[in-house]
Design goal:
Number of strands of chain B: 0
Order of helices and strands of chain A: HHHHHH
Order of helices and strands of chain B: HHHHHHH
Radius of gyration of chain B: 18 Å
Largest interface: A-B, 39 and 48 residues
Structural class of chain A: mainly alpha
Number of helices of chain A: 6
Helix content of chain A: over 70%
Helix content of chain B: over 70%
Number of domains of chain B: 2
Largest sheet of chain A: none
Oligomer: heterodimer
Radius of gyration of chain A: 41 Å
Strand content of chain A: under 5%
Number of helices of chain B: 7
Structural class of chain B: mainly alpha
Distance between the termini of chain B: 44 Å
Chain lengths: ~130, ~190
């Protein structure tokens, strides 16, 4: 068995010598064929490179939420969400009076007219005339 | 998943052997080149998304199928040629092999003794001739197993036969080649 393997190896060494001595024209054609084949790869394979390029960011995010310090990340995220919520809420409540003031100032009627209970009745009686 | 560089590197590594392998099988350099080109293209188009470790087996399977397809086409062509023409297409290239033509003037071992180079080229010529004369399955098994260094199971998978058959084909091929070389006085 070993002798068979040795004989095979000797023969293969000669064959490899022949392949290494290949005619330049054939070698050039083979190289061109290789280029054509590589450029014929489906685009999805090229897209995979982009995925690999973004794998760094993906890895960081994955580690943050699934690694050893995941609970700290979760806490920090919740705190951040609370802060954002509070800011949004504060903005809305502060904007309420401002908008009412702007409406009153821009109105044709004086602000007292809205507080006068008889004003609506007077307005209706005058519109009937 | 393999990328363009992995595929290119793999093809660069195997293209010369693949060409020689096809040339031994079909005995026509132009046809061998076409076969290798088709095999490369098919690997790139259909299997380039597979892991690079699978390339050797996939490529060999594609290459062997391409060689078999060539045989089938040749058989049909020869049949029609025999029927409609008295001129046989034959294998003209077979007689054109000149041992000295195999010597490269720009070989990377150019510093060697020219006599040694000639002797080496002659031995290579004898081996190549003997290899071409082997039955197709024996040649296939020998090349896959010993030149492409696939293991028995991989060779069997590529050839579509049992591991036992691979061992038998390989053993017979080695003995036939050794005997052919022995007849020419090149004993190992």
């Amino acid at each position: 068995m070993n002798q068979e393997r040795d004989t095979a190896k000797t023969i293969v060494d000669y064959l490899q010598f022949g392949a290494d001595q290949l005619d330049d024209a054939v070698a050039t054609k083979l190289a061109a064929a290789r280029q054509r084949a590589v450029s014929a790869m489906p685009e999805t394979v090229y897209a995979a490179h982009a995925e690999v390029a973004h794998a760094g960011l993906g890895h960081v995010i994955h580690e943050a939420f699934h690694g050893r310090n995941a609970w700290m990340t979760m806490l920090a995220t919740m705190a951040l969400l609370l802060v954002v919520l509070a800011l949004v809420q504060g903005n809305t409540t502060m904007n309420g009076p401002v908008e009412a003031d702007a409406l009153l100032l821009a109105s044709e009627l004086p602000p007292e007219a809205y507080l006068d209970k008889g004003f609506d009745a007077w307005l209706e009686s005058t519109s009937e005339l | 998943m393999a990328n363009a560089k992995a595929l290119s590197d793999f093809l660069a590594q195997v293209e010369r052997r693949a060409f020689k392998q096809a040339a031994y099988a079909v005995r026509d350099d132009h046809a061998a080149l076409d076969i290798v080109q088709d095999a490369m293209l098919k690997l790139a188009e259909k299997y380039s998304q597979r892991p690079a470790e699978e390339f050797p087996m996939l490529f060999q399977r594609i290459l062997q199928n391409a060689i078999r397809d060539y045989y089938r086409r040749q058989k049909v062509r020869n049949l029609w040629t025999t029927l409609f023409s008295s001129f046989s297409s034959g294998h003209d290239d077979e007689d054109e092999h000149d041992l000295l033509e195999r010597l490269s003037p720009h070989g990377d071992e150019g510093h060697n003794d020219p006599g040694e180079e000639v002797s080496r080229a002659q031995t290579l010529g004898l081996i190549e001739d003997a290899l071409q004369k082997l039955p197709q399955r024996q040649r296939e098994a020998f090349v896959l197993r010993y030149w492409e260094e696939l293991d028995v199971a991989e060779t069997a998978a590529v050839m579509g036969c049992s591991e036992g058959s691979v061992k038998t084909h390989c053993s017979r091929a080695v003995h036939t080649l050794a005997a052919a070389l022995g007849k020419k006085g090149i004993g190992r």
